[in-house]
Amino acid sequence: MSATLIPGKPMPSVQVPLVDGGVLDLGELNDWTIVVVYRGRHCARCKPYLSKLNTMLADLSAIGVAGLAISADPQDRAEADVAEFKWQFPVGYDLSFGQMRQLGLFVSDSIKPAETGRPFAEPGLFVINGDGLVQIVEMSNSASVRPDLDLLLDGIRSIKEKGIPIRGLAA
């Protein structure tokens, strides 16, 4: 059973290696950051989505927001994506099944030879605020559904400018 990330709570400590070296710990993010979980190299819908994020890095930076992506792909597949698509944001890899569940992600088994050969996460997106808390959570069980990045940029801009509190907390 997956955990459910609760807006307003800290991001769990999930550590993944980065293509450019080092290790990313999601629980240590304490600046505004968009974390995109992508399905992996096999996903034709992930590449344009992450390439769009890449084109928005200057606009995000202008409002004090960073972007990064993580997947369950092994190192060689993540490195191939970064090399091919020239992504300028940090890319983590080797997200484990347990980590996917810890983040509340939907997980799929590979069904085609072109896929990873192991379970992989379906799309997820988290926005971490400047206090290190989960501000926005969006998850899908299908490659076909993802948040519109232009709307997300506008929404984060509004949240920051107007001081809009974390939503979705009503009991």
What's the order of the H and E elements? EEEHHEHEHEEEEH
Please give the radius of gyration in angstroms: 15 Å
The 3D shape can be described as: globular
Instruction: Outline the low-pLDDT stretches.
Output: none
Described by strand count, sense and barrel closure, the largest sheet is:
5 strands, mixed
Q: How many helices does DSSP assign?
A: 5
This entry's quaternary arrangement is single chain
Q: First CA to last CA: what distance?
A: 22 Å
Helix/strand layout:
Elements: E1 15-17, E2 23-25, E3 33-37, H1 46-55, H2 57-62, E4 66-70, H3 75-85, E5 91-92, H4 97-102, E6 107-108, E7 120-121, E8 124-128, E9 134-139, H5 149-162
Parallel strand pairs: 3-4, 4-5
Antiparallel strand pairs: 1-2, 3-8, 6-7, 8-9
Descriptive account of the structure:
This protein has a five-stranded mixed sheet with strand order 5-4-3-8-9. A two-stranded antiparallel sheet has the order 1-2. The mean pLDDT is 93. The chain is globular and about 50 Å long. 32% of the residues are buried. It has helices spanning 46-55, 57-62, 75-85, 97-102, 149-162, and strands at 15-17, 23-25, 33-37, 66-70, 91-92, 107-108, 120-121, 124-128, 134-139. With 171 residues, it is an alpha/beta fold. The chain has five helices and nine strands. The chain starts with 14 loop residues before the first strand and ends in a 9-residue tail after the last helix.
Labels describing this entry:
alpha/beta; 9 strands; 171 residues
Short account of what is shown:
This protein is of the alpha/beta class. It has helices at residues 46-55, 57-62, 75-85, 97-102, 149-162; strands at residues 15-17, 23-25, 33-37, 66-70, 91-92, 107-108, 120-121, 124-128, 134-139.
